[in-house]
Amino acid sequence: FYGRGAHVATGDTDLAREMRLAARENLAAAFLLFERGLLRAAASRFYFAMFQAVVYSLAKRGERPPGGRDSYWSHDLVERAAATVRGSEADALLFGHLRDMRVRADYRKERVERGVLTLVRHDVRRFVEEATA
Fold this sequence. Notes:
- This protein is mostly helical.
- 69% of the residues lie in helices and 3% in strands.
- The protein is built from five helices and two strands, in the order E-H-H-E-H-H-H.
- Helix 1 (15-35) runs antiparallel to helix 2 (39-60), helix 2 (39-60) packs across helix 3 and helix 3 packs antiparallel against helix 4.
- 35% of the residues are buried.
């Protein structure tokens, strides 16, 4: 269900269902990776759990990205939509923080601090669980 690059295709009629499953799976993986001390990988999985939960919410509401059937939910579009899922600007801030941490962890191989992940992991869990309920 992934499109080109890091965007998500909307042509799949099962997008909402697939995103819900992926969000929950990535959340579980993030906690396992965190507990094992694999912090860069955990940061990436926390981000994608939230990303996929937002896409699930959008798809469930029948929303599609601009551009028609073969368009993709870009990271920028999903970040802007994060606050609409639960009606909280704090969710958009959390999403932006996770996105920045994921980019640094995945592409710059910068250290991810355990304390930072400790602070955000329960917020991400709550978001994913509520958004995909």
